[in-house]
Amino acid sequence: MKRRTWLFSAAGAAGALIVGWGVLPPRSRIGSGRLWPPAEGDIALNGWIKIRPDGSVVLAMARSEMGQGVSTALPMLAAEELDLPLSRIYIEQAGADKIYGNVAMLVASLPFHPSEMEGRPAKVEVGEWVVSKLARELGINATGGSSSVADAWTVVRTAAATARASLLGAASLQWRLPVAELTVQDGVVSHPSGPSAHYGELAKFAAATPPGTVTLKDRKDWTVIGQSAPRKDIPAKVDGSAQFGLDVRLPGMVYAAIRLCPMLGGAPGAMPANAALAMPGVERLVALPAYAGSTAGFAVVGKSWWQAQQAAQAVPVDWRQRPAGALDSRRIEGELEAAVKSDAGGFTFYEKGAVDQAEAGATRRIEAVYHAPYLAHATLEPMNCTVQVRDGQVFLWGPTQVLQMAAAIAARVAGVTVDQVHITVTLLGGGFGRRLEVDYVAQAVRVAMDCGGRPVQLIWSREEDTTHDFYRPMHVALLRAAVDAQGQLSSLRIKSAGDAITPRWMERGLPMLAGPVDTPDKTTAEGLFDLPYGFPNQHMSHVATRKGVPVGFWRSVGHSHNAFFSESFIDELAFETQQDPLALRRQLLKDAPRHLAVLNLAAAKAGWDVKLPAGQARGIALHESFGAIVAQVAEASLLAGQVRVHRVVCAMDCGTVVNPGIVAQQMESAVVFGLTAALYGKVDIHEGVVQQKNFPDYPMLRLAQTPLVQTHLVSSTRPPGGVGEPGVPPLAPAVANALFALTGQRLRTLPLRVI
């Protein structure tokens, strides 16, 4: 089956056939100026670029800013091709047209079909194909998968270059001078003979001028891309003018607090509310069904959120367990371990050579079982959404990573068409994949429908946010290597087990899927089926489970735990075969030069062979994810029995770097996020109830515990890869390997606990 005619049929989804089509080429994704809403004095040259009367430029922003710096990186791409200072590029929220579709995000999150596997299942190349029906239904303006810059790399530059060509063409026609003789500096077009005009003066004529041949700037001529430009969103965040979801204030606005069934998948029975409704400032109680995979409950509306919250807590509720029985994380962990140790093979994602034969002739086998727990997202801004339903229209303000998916759920709940939903995407106070879900949007719309046309801001408490997340799945993996008679590693077998994310996400977000989706999900096995290490015989399989715990995308998704499994085991193999961990990796990477270069850079910058002070040790790990390769060396010690990481040296090959400063910031963010999970992250479920409630029992890394993070980038001419997520996966195994070197204890379970 050819890739361009790829078909995906979901089991149980009667008649739901999704047909692949070739992705729109960059020029086709530029679109028309008619896409822009009317704005006095502004002239749209295409669907991405609009010229203001003063000659500054507005760029359509089709991605959500959640701290990753996309509101700076994308304007940098436009500024480069327009020969305009970055300070004169402004952003405006894009609409829902397909030209803004994030192809990279969609392809990254899709399950791949077995027919797509030809030997080693290579990463699907961005721009080759996408699933059209999925794109239409889900909302292609998605922010995730570290794909925003990768997707915009050619499209935004092409849109800006096309606008520049039209502006130059307009000047050429007006002045009757050859385009080749015109120059542009800081947005001013001029000719040596004297004529000059800024973009604003040429825009009206340029809108009617075909661009002709368009070429992108040569790399040697770049003046913006590759420079550490200041972030454009920082001033507003410093002076308080930046608008996050919780900052929305509208005339006549009321507030809603939610209370969901404490038992995941449960529902409320009787809930007498008379006493709560009599409390000061309280207006109404609204029942909330299980929207978009959430747990059922209710919301209380009040004049202030605090009044609503106090009333919600005062309602005596007969909470009822889910019909299938209470969930328990300990039982689930035991079932997953039994699955990886059983003879049932699961779905084979990758195989090479003959592992059975290599194991049969081995003189020795090395085997280990690893565990990764459920994890919450714990965004600092809890879930919230502001909605007003009036005159058959839905107006929505909120932090979301999926604009069109949010619009679709709002339309379904309110009983209107998607065209009647108007969304303003605010800044996100953290996303990490949690805001790829739309449960909180559906709840806010339902509550607003009962508020007589007034706007209502629904806010989750921290406790609701922690206990009703879409968690990173719990996974268990068994890894086994064989050593032949010559003492060489002859095979690697990996078998993992745990819930799949993408099928559950599709069920929540795709109304045309009439039943459960059962398909191999590459997020369960990513980072394991595509290891760069040159074992002659390999086999990787996964046992997909469906345990009932709501699961979702979590920063770096399957890579976040799979890297811990594989990189910890590589260290075990080094120890068991009496080799240095760095030396073994170098040997296994002899046919992977990019990976080897990153590994060597990290080791050199960390001083791998330089002795550390007494009581400290180093660990190393390497992993590729989201189009980037990252190696990290962690230096750790034990202080009063507590793990302390002093320094993390990162080396990264992420292709062309747009803004080195933002890349370094993202690596620092990834280290803090990853170290938090490695040392503290765990969600326990007992009798269906999540035991962790707030930061005291689901702690974050504190400033005083934060290590020094040093980032070194490999120069590359490849297109940009991801940055926000690839720094997370190597962190936990690097720390675990350092702790083994320090204590001799092999830690195979997260979070890391030294006994």
What's the shape?
globular
Beginning-to-end CA distance, first to last residue: 53 Å
Strand order within the widest beta sheet: 13-14-11-21-18-19-20
Which architecture of the largest domain would the CATH scheme give at its second level? 2-Layer Sandwich
Question: Residue share in helices?
Answer: 25-40%
Q: Major beta sheet, specifics?
A: 7 strands, mixed
Number of helical elements: 20
Number of domains: 3
Q: What is the percentage of strand-forming residues?
A: 15-25%
Q: What is the class of the largest domain in the CATH system?
A: Alpha Beta
Rg, Å, rounded: 27 Å
Low-pLDDT runs: 1-23, 113-139
Mean pLDDT: 91
By DSSP, the count of extended strands is: 30
Would you tell me the structural class of the helices and strands? alpha+beta
Let me know the CATH homologous superfamily of the largest domain: Aldehyde oxidase/xanthine dehydrogenase, molybdopterin binding domain
Reported by name, the CATH topology of the largest domain is Aldehyde Oxidoreductase, domain 4
Describe the structure.
- With 755 residues, the chain is α+β, with helices and mostly antiparallel strands.
- It has three domains: 3-238, Aldehyde Oxidoreductase, domain 4 (2-Layer Sandwich), CATH 3.30.365; 245-322 and 383-459, Aldehyde Oxidoreductase, domain 4 (2-Layer Sandwich), CATH 3.30.365; 329-375 and 471-743, Aldehyde Oxidoreductase, domain 4, CATH 3.30.365.10.
- It is 28% helix and 22% strand.
- The protein has 20 helices and 30 strands.
- The strands form eight sheets. A seven-stranded mixed sheet has the order 13-14-11-21-18-19-20. It has a five-stranded mixed sheet with strand order 16-24-23-22-17, sandwiched between helices. It has a four-stranded mixed sheet with strand order 3-4-5-6.
- A hairpin with a 5-residue loop joins strand 22 (475-483) and strand 23.
- The longest helix has 28 residues, at 148-175.
- The radius of gyration is 27 Å and the shape is globular.
- The two termini are 53 Å apart.
- Mean pLDDT is 91; it is low at 1-23 and 113-139.
